[in-house]
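Practice problem 4.
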């Protein structure tokens, strides 16, 4: 194993990386600037990070663009749509309200980061605002914004993320049923593959 010392302090990090550029610092604000609102309004997908007594979690959220409402420059409203009921994120937020959001926009190399604190609301007036196909979400996250800034495009460019020629054929990876069957030892899970796409699309809300 490489005997090179590990980086274990901020002083070590500073010595290795130096300080952030002026642009990397000035882009961060403590509210949703009108420019940043356009990114949120255009995003159909984001990753939400949370932490709690059981550890950390990063989960995807998606809906038609505009599904995250910028209630005001310091407040975001996010519907919690139907999922697998693990509620890992919500379990964490009950214990620790800190969250990080990473908004992605198809075809756009930059992404938008939002840090803040979230409360879980079940107020009928909020739930009704997010009804889809007549079905409201079970809860709505009310996010108090603490920091907002855009992420530079280098990671997306290096990954060639939005290049259709690089998209991966789903059949080249293990199927949902295969994974469940092999992990559980129950071969009946393989039957899920035949109806998986239909079930997902008919149970979105």
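Answer key:
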């Amino acid at each position: 194993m490489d005997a090179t010392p590990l980086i274990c302090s901020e002083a070590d990090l500073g010595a290795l990386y130096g300080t952030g550029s002026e642009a990397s610092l000035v882009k961060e604000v403590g509210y949703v600037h009108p420019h940043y609102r356009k990114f949120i309004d255009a995003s159909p997908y984001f990753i939400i990070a949370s932490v709690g007594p059981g550890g950390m979690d990063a989960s995807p959220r998606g809906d038609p663009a505009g599904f995250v409402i910028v209630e005001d420059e310091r407040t975001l409203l996010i519907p919690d749509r139907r999922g697998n009921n693990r509620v890992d994120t919500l379990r964490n937020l009950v214990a620790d309200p800190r969250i990080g959001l990473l908004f992605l926009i198809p075809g756009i190399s930059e992404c938008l980061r939002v840090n803040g604190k979230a409360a879980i609301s079940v107020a009928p007036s909020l739930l009704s605002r997010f009804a889809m196909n007549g079905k409201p979400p079970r809860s709505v996250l009310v996010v108090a914004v603490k920091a907002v800034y855009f992420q530079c495009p280098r990671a997306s460019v290096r990954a060639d993320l939005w290049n259709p020629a690089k998209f991966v054929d789903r059949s080249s990876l293990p199927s949902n049923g295969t994974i469940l069957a092999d992990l559980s030892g129950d071969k009946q899970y393989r039957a899920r593959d035949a109806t998986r796409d239909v079930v997902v699309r008919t149970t979105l809300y």
